[in-house]
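Q: I'm writing up a methods section and want to include an example of the input and output format. Could you take the sequence below and give the corresponding predicted structure tokens, formatted cleanly so I can copy it straight into the document?
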Amino acid sequence: MAAVSILDLARVTVATDARGALDNARHLAAHAEDLGYRRFWVAEHHNMPGIASAATSLVIAHVAAGTRTIRVGAGGIMLPNHAPLVIAEQFGTLARLFPGRIDLGVGRAPGTDQETVRALRRSWSSADTFPRDVLELQAYLAPVEQGQRVQAVPAAGTEVPIWILGSSLFGAQLAAELGLPYAFASHFAPELLVPALQIYRARFKPSKQLAAPYVMVGVNIVAAGTDREARRLATTQQMSFADIFRGTRGLSKPPIDDIDTYWSPIEKAQAQQMLARSIIGSVITVRAGIDALLAETQADELIVVSDVFDHAERLRSFELIAEANRR
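A: Here is the clean output for your methods example:
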């Protein structure tokens, strides 16, 4: 049985405002804690009306305050959008408030569009310094060295665990070189999953943080009482992907009976390519899907996105996923 965690986007829906989305995330995390999930991560996205986790460190604080033992973190912070010192200060503060429970996953994508990058006072070229920024971030979270003139207060010495997130081979190479745990975003970019994991494991160099490779695989799972019901619930995410292709990123929509009435053949092909590794169905179907994914990837941990419109049905989906994983 692999460890299983949750990646949440604090979805704003046509029926729930941003405050409701944030409270639902906190409630889900508490529920996940009782179900045995290992960690609960939220993602940084900007200029997206349907996602309420842009101020990621604040959302983490909200979630962590409503839970007791589950690890809470970022999946992830898009480091090119920020000065490493600021991120160290934020996550060091979280570590002081919730000791032993905070994770910091970092990625090099902006998590938004070019115009919003400019509004963040950053540039696309900021991604070029990502490896150096990760090293700087590590240094700020480490104990203060003699003569160090700039300190991240109160972060110094907290040594918050850093993860490298990726959807390409670059992140795998960097995580291996730095000896950090690696999370691959196969929930929206499945094509390079296997090659990336092979590179990461083959090139891994032990570090102070991690002695051996550790792989987390992102996967979309929607579980329900029957395969048919789960397929219907999954149309919410499918519509969201179609909306992205149309450039109309709106609020999360309730599921529909026939997704082919919503998207065009081209949108369908694009979405199915990005969602190729999704697992959708009953407990039996989900168990088989998890088994197949673990056999192929030998992942140490799965991090699950279950993008279900109704909060009660999403709680139920995660209950069934946990049941499938225990079988």
